[in-house]
Design brief:
CATH superfamily of the largest domain: TonB-dependent receptor, beta-barrel domain
Radius of gyration: 35 Å
Largest sheet: 22 strands, antiparallel, barrel
Strand content: over 45%
Number of helices: 7
Structural class: mainly beta
Number of domains: 3
């Protein structure tokens, strides 16, 4: 009986199912899919759904008798990518997927970073999982719903790193509906103007996962957006910027270097050095190993300004340029302005190197550092109050004396060289303000046996207040102090041994304002004042046998002030204009006694005719300098732009240096009663393009620069024995021009860049009289006239843990002055030199390689570490740093001096406590 009941029940269910299913007959010749769907709807009343943009483009004949609707559809779509799914007595057709009928299981991956297994889901499942993730499409309500604002609404916000709470520099926000956007500044703030309404916003930044959000805009207000770091390692060697991330948007002559981009680039001492890497870019050169200072677009080394968190650094190197002055582990943003220089910067003719450090981690404490045979470094950071305030402390020190002691040379083995530096950063955040303090100190000491010794140091600090008054008006105020000093003892000759100390102090206040007018127009204006105090010291005899005369170089004071205003205006979709005016005033200050000289006579001590007396803080002379800045960016097509820039600059201080390289005891000198500030004009134009679907970036830029009142030194100038500097220098004109080419591949296993620069630099000092001329008044090559420079940076990533990098550099030999004869005047030997800088030293060529090995990349580890093995000067080439001459039995013989003539191998171990991805 029970079996009979089950059989009857099964029969009833089968019949019911058959009655529910609808059958139809169709016999059509060359019918389209749209016509088939219309026929099914008219015959059965059933609906067929599919995306509007995915209608099958199929026409065929169909002949079926008493087939189900689903079978009819599947038959017609047989062989295509479309699939049929039943849904609520209707049918849904999707491309390459079935309609999801149940919630998919979401499995959390526990795989090792870099070795995660792929989990294959359907598109619908992926969309569902993404939709279930928290905060993927967060909604921000801006302002008060009860306020009915009309017209433009001002929105400001802050973009932060989700892991450590640091502000993200240069993150972009893009509003899809208005096609407008903005970029965050150094404190992560951005501002944008929108009408009341609802918007889709996308936040993007290099190294972070893009984030989409909904904005419900009611009235003026603020938001805070956190972004998550990208889960894949960055292999690119990229030079990038904020709104400059796109080569089509970046300002002319601006370069931004990513620390991720240079982490594998070989360096001589195993230290990542952003200053040395900048030499690989177009238009920037260095005169050789063992020398600090850079020459940008044919200018001298003192024409470049270096700032770290607004603190000026007057000597940006350790140990004669072998080590970087800044710990790269704390650098967050590094910008080089060498073409268009914003109006907020002044005081240098060639370039501005602007460094911004990281802030401390606002969520967790973190320790990271590294060591190699020459130096060690460590950085500690963490929150004071989570998400509100943080601290960062970084320290480095060298221990290279053991290497010198092991060298089989009595002079070198008894020598010593060491340095140390410390950086400290403290900040406190509120809803609309950031208060921060930064301190930097560095010390260097070098002694060459009992021949000479140097000690020099940098000290600096800044106290900063960033305040957002409202959604569109912001201010950044800073109080800054900096000091560079050195002391030298020269014992090479007992009878002329001396000691000398020097210092330059820099006190500054500045206030920079930003007013966002609308979504395409922003106004920048501000004021700054600098007080210089120079103690040029006294040259004193060293030792009881020294016959050196005491020379008092005295003290100098100067006041520099400036006002500036600049407007950044996106005029149309194809034209951006930035125009600014900076007006600077400079005055050397008393107390001082100024000598005047007879007219039409050489400016020498023998021709002094009067003395002018100036009281304490009395202006000796006023120098005024209006400086106009302009940048034009023409978008020619979706892949390229043409950029034109013009700069006027002034410089009120210069270096007293009659050699090509900067020495630790090189003095800075202010413009004064006799020596005028240098004035420079530069114009540049270039073409910037993405090619091969954006895989490559390329640019060609031309520049021309003319400088007046350029300070040049007379032959045989001596700045130690002569306190009257105006008698040892002359002022003339400097002219430089050139073309720069850059080809960069940003992505893929193989990446890097190729840079070529052709440039010329000339000087002319042609006074009315012979004593006011150099090189008989003829034009001559400057010390930094290096016509051809080729640099290549190449990286290849075998995996996320193994990277091979190489640097190849070539420079044409720099100018040098050679002797042409030697004659005797009585018993005194006199050397006669040819025209200044008429010849050149041999060309320079060097190849470096490095291999970076990352440790295990598992997420939950106490310590993560990596190794970097680098070889500097792989080919062992004896590149000439200089050529010098000596008399040997009345015969003049030449010698080539090389600093590093063998391959130099360094192994560096880097470590970090905590999660690999957090930093």
């Amino acid at each position: 009986m029970r079996c009979l009941f089950l059989v009857i029940l099964s029969f009833i269910l089968i019949v019911a199912k058959a009655q529910d299913e609808t059958f139809l007959s169709v016999d059509k010749e060359n019918i389209s899919f749209e016509d088939l769907v219309e026929y099914i709807s008219s015959e059965t009343g059933m609906r067929v759904y599919l995306p509007e943009d995915q209608t099958p483009d199929i026409v065929k004949s169909i002949s079926l008798d008493s087939a189900s609707v689903k079978n009819a559809l599947e038959y017609f779509l047989l062989g295509s990518k479309f699939k049929v799914s039943e849904w609520n007595n209707s049918f849904v057709i999707l491309s390459n997927e079935n309609l999801i009928r149940k919630i998919p299981i979401y499995v959390k991956e526990e795989a090792e970073r870099g070795d995660a297994k792929d989990i294959l889901n359907t598109k619908s499942e992926d969309r569902y999982i993404q939709g279930r993730k928290s905060d993927v499409m967060a909604t921000f309500d801006v302002g008060d719903k009860n306020i009915h604002s009309s017209g433009k609404i001002r929105i400001s916000g802050k973009i932060l790193d989700m892991d450590n709470g640091e502000p993200i520099i240069g993150a972009t926000v893009y509003i899809e509906e208005t096609k407008s956007g903005a970029a965050s500044d150094l404190h992560g703030y951005f501002a944008i103007v929108l009408p009341r309404g609802n918007y889709n916003a996308q936040f993007s930044s290099m190294g972070y996962e893009p984030r989409k959000c909904y904005l419900n805009v009611y009235s003026n207000g603020r938001i805070s957006v956190k972004m998550e770091q990208a889960t894949v390692s960055l292999l690119e060697a990229v030079i990038f910027g904020d709104r400059q991330m796109d080569i089509k948007r970046k300002d002319p002559g601006l370069e931004k270097i990513s620390l991720d981009a240079i982490k594998s680039i070989p360096m001589m001492m195993g230290e990542k050095d952003v200053i040395k890497v900048s030499e690989m870019l177009p238009g920037i050169v260095n005169v050789g190993e063992g020398s600090s200072g850079l020459n940008v677009r044919g200018g001298s080394s003192d024409q470049n300004a270096f700032y770290i968190n607004r603190v000026p650094v007057y000597n940006a190197s350790h140990l004669f340029g072998f080590f970087p002055a800044f710990n790269s582990d704390i650098i967050k943003d590094f910008s080089i302005y060498k073409g268009f220089i914003p109006a907020e910067f002044g005081g240098r003719l060639s370039s501005v190197f602007n460094i911004t450090t990281k802030q401390g981690n606002k969520h967790n404490f973190n320790i990271h550092g590294g060591t190699n045979p020459f130096s060690s470094k460590v950085t500690i950071e963490g929150p004071i109050v989570k998400e509100k305030s943080s601290v960062l402390l970084s320290a480095r020190s060298s221990f290279s004396d053991w290497i010198l002691a092991a060298i089989d040379d009595p002079i070198i083995s008894e020598s010593g060289a060491n340095f140390n530096d410390v950086s400290f950063y403290l900040d406190k955040h509120s809803d609309n303000s950031v208060i921060s303090a930064f301190v930097y100190t560095s010390n260097d000491k070098f002694n060459l046996s009992d021949i000479n010794s140097y000690e020099y140091s940098n000290r600096g600090g800044s106290l900063n207040l960033y305040h957002d008054f409202n959604s569109l008006f912001r201010v950044n105020m800073s109080m800054i102090a900096s000091q560079y000093k050195f002391s030298t003892i020269d014992m090479q000759n007992v009878s002329t041994a001396y000691e000398h100390s020097y210092s330059i102090k820099h006190y500054e206040f500045r206030a920079d304002f930003i007013q966002t007018i609308n979504e395409s127009n922003s106004l920048y204006f501000g004021i700054n004042g600098i007080l210089y105090n120079l103690d040029r010291g006294s040259v004193l005899p060293y030792g009881v046998e020294s016959l050196r005369m005491i020379v008092d170089h005295g003290k100098e004071n100067g006041l520099e002030t400036a006002l500036y205003i600049s407007d950044k205006y996106d005029v149309t979709s194809w034209l951006d204009i930035t125009a600014g005016l900076r007006y600077s005033l400079f005055a050397p200050l008393g107390s001082d006694d100024i000598y005047t000289y007879y007219e039409d006579q050489p400016r020498e001590a023998a021709f002094i005719n009067d003395t002018l007396f100036f009281q304490n803080n009395q202006a000796i002379k006023w120098y005024k300098s209006p400086e106009f800045r302009l940048s034009l960016n023409f978008k020619t097509d979706p892949n390229g732009t043409i950029k034109i820039a013009f700069n006027q600059m002034s410089q009120n201080l210069f270096m007293l240096n009659n050699t090509v390289a900067i020495a630790p005891n090189t003095q800075w000198k202010l413009a004064d009663y006799h020596i005028k500030p240098a004035l420079g004009n530069q114009v540049s134009a270039g073409i910037f393009r993405n090619i091969f679907d954006g895989k490559l970036e390329t640019s060609i830029e031309l520049f021309y620069k003319k400088t007046s009142n350029y300070t040049e030194f007379k032959d045989g100038a001596d700045f130690l024995s002569n306190p009257l500097i105006e008698t040892a220098v002359l002022q003339g004109d400097q002219e430089s021009y050139g073309i720069e080419f850059l080809l960069k591949k940003k992505t893929g296993r193989f990446n890097g860049w190729l840079a070529y620069t052709y440039s010329r630099s000339f000087v002319e000092v042609d006074g009315e009289n012979s004593w006011n001329q150099i090189n008989y008044g003829n034009v001559y090559s400057s010390n930094y006239d290096i016509p051809n420079v080729i640099n290549a940076v190449l990286n290849y990533s075998f995996s996320k843990r193994i990277t091979l990098s190489s640097v190849i550099t070539y420079q044409q030999g720099r100018p040098v002055t050679y002797p042409i004869s030697n004659y005797y005047f009585g018993n005194i030997s006199v050397i006669d030199y040819f025209e200044r800088n008429k010849y050149r030293i041999p060309d320079y060529f060097r190849t470096d390689i490095s291999l970076t090995l990352e440790g295990n990349l598992k997420k939950n580890k106490l310590i993560h570490s990596s190794w970097m093995l680098s070889v500097y000067n792989v080919t062992g080439r004896n590149n000439a740093y200089s050529v010098y001459f000596q008399l040997d039995k009345a015969v003049m013989k030449s010698y080539k001096y090389s600093v590093i003539g063998i391959p130099f191998v360094t192994a560096t171990w880097l470590f970090k406590f905590g999660n690999y991805a957090s930093h």
